[in-house]
Amino acid sequence: MTGSDLPLVEPPFESPESDAPRVAGVLLAAGTSSRFGEANKLLATHEGDPLVRHAARTLLEAGVDPVVVVVGHEADRVIDALEGLDVAFVRNPDYRRGQASSVRAGIDAVRDRGDARDASDAAVVALGDMPFVDPETVETLVAAYASGAGDALAAAYGGARGNPVLFDRRFFAALTDVSGDVGGREILLESDDGVRVAVSDSGVRRDVDEQSDLP
What we know:
By secondary structure, the chain is an alpha/beta fold. It has a single domain (3-10, 22-208), classed as Spore Coat Polysaccharide Biosynthesis Protein SpsA, Chain A (Alpha-Beta Complex), CATH 3.90.550. Helices cover 26% and strands 22% of the residues. The protein is built from 6 helices and 10 strands; from the N terminus they run E-E-E-E-H-E-H-E-H-E-H-E-E-H-H-E. The chain has an 8-stranded mixed sheet, with helices on both faces.
């Protein structure tokens, strides 16, 4: 199955009659930026702030809570770049093994926070090198999940699947078992409840891999 095979759902979404779900945020910010050159791309600036700070603010402004930032490469510098933001950090010592190791570390941290009453129902997984995502996009993902549109959801622009993605807690165990550099992609594509959520935000398809990707 490819991303275009997933059902496409479009807003608006009906608000749930019961309590709104508790949705956490996981920001992956541990990579080595190998294609960006010698500099750490997460610390490159756009409109005066590091890219990773833009990505973290997107989750915070969307209202997901808690927001857990997974750090690895140049961890202390990334942490310093997020000074003053209401985020928690988890260090991934295995970050060189690929993105999946950071997904595992972030989801483990979400599962370990709080007691059963405060447990997260789902988590939005976002990428630190995608500073152009609008907070409204994350809000739309959460609204789609709350309305029962699906349990594994990916933002999609022009029908094309992008990031961030949202996973119900029933996938947490599987997300902590993935390996390599696939993250949650296979879980999303193989889930019977996987959907694309239509958004008008081109930022969901726009990451920063090279210097030329910055405006």
